[in-house]
Write a structure and sequence with these properties.
Number of helices of chain A: 10
Structural class of chain A: mainly alpha
Oligomer: homodimer
Helix content of chain A: over 70%
Radius of gyration of chain A: 19 Å
Largest interface: A-B, 31 and 31 residues
Number of strands of chain A: 0
Shape of chain A: elongated
Chain lengths: ~190, ~190
DNA sequence: GACCATACGGAACTATGATTCCGTTTGTCA
DNA sequence: TGACAAACGGAATCATAGTTCCGTATGGTC
């Protein structure tokens, strides 16, 4: 596959098993605590020792990046699915935003990543974000062609608005309702 | 003034001078680095020792809270001024949002406070936020009575949207333009 | 201008949490 | 099943940054 002759010595069975356990445990811990999650917690919840976590991921940043990367991958999937949906184009786009927001809602680490916390995480997800951008571009063009989306906004405005919604998700104030924020953001994109 | 007979032994001249220097220095450091600013830096920039910083503020949280509180006070001032402005009510409100955003823009600590980082800071500014809420309420009512603001939004939506704009301000991505985000947020409040 | 409470400076202390190290255990393969 | 490399566990280490302590300096007052 790769031109650089990657040596992949094939993991031992227990190592492969632990790799999964760590990703699963880490997802829970980072989802709950965001970037301030502790590696000891990840190890405990995953049912392995800290040393094992570090054997699989060189740093906390690297582990978090992998988790966020996988989530962004799933955004790409839901967005691509929307390309095949037959509906009013602006509503299709709005539904993608709603669907992806629901995925983000339970995960503090992803919220923080959307908000730009941590250069490594941001850069480590460049490929996924780029793919997401392409799909969004297509959805936006359809909606603008249909005349139901403002012509003076672009696909690049969507992550910016989502970043704002994520800030609301993470906020403790009871009066802040991210679903409401999202609907306002969607409305701001709607043609008048 | 106070019913609890506060003993205020009158600060020595050098202490009063240092108090100002610390607030001034801390403003710079927290504005640049947000909550992750270091007390050693605050001391150095202020031109005093760390011990002196702690003589004036018991904890880092307390210092940060005081800074944020003062900024929120200035929001109350600009918002109150707007009550006296004679103009189209929705545009008056939008201008308050623009003006206050410009004040926030240079200050990472205030951005983070708006985004709900730090329980003590949030609670320590309750009075100012409450005053701000009252003034906003009045501005919103005027705009809604004029029919230029959506009737199904409220004053409480404004800090939520501002929270989102603050997230954009703090974001490193070059494509994120908080002034653009703000205009979209304002548009989402506009009557159709 | 001497006294002394107030205030200062910054080295030392402490807590927290990421990362490393190494003795032990376990899969794999002959 | 014996050998050995791969992988594990978790105590120990290291780094960072908030906070405390105490010897020294200074403003206010008689």
């Amino acid at each position: 596959m790769s031109t650089t002759e990657e040596t992949k010595p094939a993991l031992r069975a227990d190592a492969r098993r632990n790799h999964e356990k760590i990703i699963e445990g880490a997802r829970k811990v980072f989802a709950r605590n965001g970037a301030s999650a502790q590696m000891e917690d990840v190890a405990r919840v995953s049912g392995v020792g800290v040393g094992t976590v570090y054997r699989h991921f060189p740093t906390k940043e690297a582990l978090m990046t992998e988790l966020v990367r996988r989530t962004f991958e799933s955004f790409v999937v839901t967005s691509r699915e929307a390309l095949a949906v037959d509906g009013e184009p602006f509503e299709v786009l709005a539904d993608v935003m709603r669907r992806n927001s629901e995925l983000i809602a339970g995960d503090a680490a992803v919220q923080q990543a959307m908000m730009g916390a941590g250069a490594e995480v941001w850069e480590g997800t460049a490929s996924e974000r780029q793919q997401l951008g392409q799909v969004s571009q297509e959805l936006v063009e359809r909606a603008q062609d249909a005349g139901t989306m403002r012509p003076d906004v672009g696909a690049h405005d969507i992550p910016m608005l989502m970043c704002g919604v994520c800030a609301t998700m993470g906020h403790t104030a009871k009066m802040f309702d991210w679903r409401r924020h999202l609907e306002l953001a969607i409305d701001s994109l709607r043609a008048r």
